[in-house]
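Run log, item B.
One chain of 369 residues. Sequence copied directly from the ordering sheet:
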Amino acid sequence: MTGSASHGVDELLSVAGIDPAAGVQVVSVGRLVTIAFDPSLPLILLADPAAPASAVLPGRHARSGPRAVLGSLYPNDHQLLELLHRAAHRLEDLDDAALAAASWLVPALDPVENIASPHGMAAISARLRAPDGCPWDQKQTHLSLRPYLLEEAYETIDAIEQGTPADLEEELGDLLLQVILHAQFAAEAGSFDLTDVYRSIGSKIIRRHPHVFGTVSVDGVDQVVSNWETIKADERAERGKAQEGAFAGVARALPALPGSREIQERASALGWDWDAIDGVWEKVAEEIEELREAATDEARLHELGDVLFAIVNLGRWMKLDPEEALRTANRRWVARYRAVEALADERGIDLAKLSLMEKDVLWNEVKAR
């Protein structure tokens, strides 16, 4: 920044009493909704009367305009200093027009109070692990948190399928906490930190979407998936892992159904697939017949696995998630059984004393409803 603009910023820093060497962010009000910034550092907003009143920050689709963006990160009673007149105003008393018409100092939040940004959560996790932090958090390791990572992932899925937006917001936060804690453990060991996690996933997504961030042209979703697998194979080769094969990246900890689907999705992307769904139906029928003819427990276990593998492939061809299908079937069965219990109770029937045929009558009545 040079010339009069630089001189103006220097004057604003002087009025605000900020030493830039200690860290400061300077941005036009008009750019506020399009950039990421850290509320734990002081923020100087430069007047921008031409700033659009309803610009939307990508990823903050509910935050329209600079006032809403600030309101999502700072408390309503946060004091902003209007630098020309050195007058303090609470954030809740300002609107987009007032912000755009003047230059402001937005004081930094304490890192632990900076709860509405990833920077704040990193500080919170470090505080939990400090010598005077939480005894439970101090004892945790990557291995000890494994059950919680799985639990939070499944609770997030449940919120997606059956919960409210508020439920999903909460569960995504719980899941994010697991990521932040694992990054904290790694930072303490000197391996990597949360910034490295952001950088890694950001670089990967850009690299694997050359049709968005590069010059590659694609014709539909199938080509996107095929390119993705090709790029992953190149990445494995660069890391010296090509000898591990195309399926080396399939997580061994995945439950069997999603693991099977991942294997078959990857095989399809590599060109190992049926020409049409008719072949899949025939394979399902073939595997069921082989299960019917299996003579030993070992053979039946083998053939049952083949049946399930073929069923997963059928679901993939139908664009259906077998894990979701089975969870839905489980919930439906339990709901029907509870309805049968309620119906039996309503009619004064002891369900435990009914024959299977009599239970089926109640079951079919509930099912028909």
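Observations after the first pass:
- The chain has four domains: 3-109, 118-207, 221-313, 323-368.
- Residues 205 and 342 are 51 Å apart (CA to CA).
Flagged for discussion on Thursday.
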